[in-house]
Specification:
Layout lengths: L1 E6 L6 H11 L3 E6 L10 E4 L20 H10 L3 E5 L1 H8 L6 E3 L7 E9 L15 E8 L3 E3 L2 H9 L3 E6 L18 E5 L5 E4 L17 H16 L7
Parallel strand pairs: 1-2, 1-3, 3-4, 4-11
Antiparallel strand pairs: 5-8, 6-7, 6-9, 9-10, 10-11
Amino acid sequence: MNIGVVVFPGSNCDHDCAHVLGDVLGQSVAMVWHKETSLAGLDAVILPGGFSYGDYLRTGAIARFSPVMEAVKDFAKGGGLVLGICNGFQILLEAGLLPGAMLRNISLHFICKDVYVRVENAATPFTGRCEPGQVLKIPIAHADGNYYTDPVTLAALQANAQIVFRYCTPDGRVTSEANPNGSLDNIAGICNPEGNVLGMMPHPERCAEAALGNEDGRLIFLSMLDALKKAKMQPKMVGA
């Protein structure tokens, strides 16, 4: 598979994602500069973590205007898989590809530590290797990870199974104590109604190989590859 990793000024997890996909999982990786206007030839796109444009104005607020984002929107509209990690999630929110917004952590401090998330929807292209309710240990590193949206949108997210991950205890209980940033409904990751766009605050690329002592994040990338392979095997309709 040919996976594109978008590089914004200030991205700092782009090569981490490329390493996991290329060196660990053996896929072809294309580093896509933010000024590119085409994503032709890519099977999936990742918006990595970091501090795009220095997080000036608001996290992701400037990156949403990068030329590549119009191509990302078209790619997603056509059913392409788009994964936004941390700052990438923030960019997806700012660009309107996912609903809601990120507020400053309730502690007002930058948080960098391992957390536990429960898989709420194991039927997405990003969680197919997971079991419903499975607990994953994945690190976070953010100052603005406090997810918020209005009550109507939250109800829709819940009703449509768009909440993919929730912060939880090691044994899978969703509690306020397990919520590291004050996120509404303990939300750690959501997808769009179609399921092909996922935004998540935890960093799966930082726990995807045995050398790091934790491979839970690998499940996210393997699920993506499974979904892409399955899609390529599907016979195309005549005239489609």
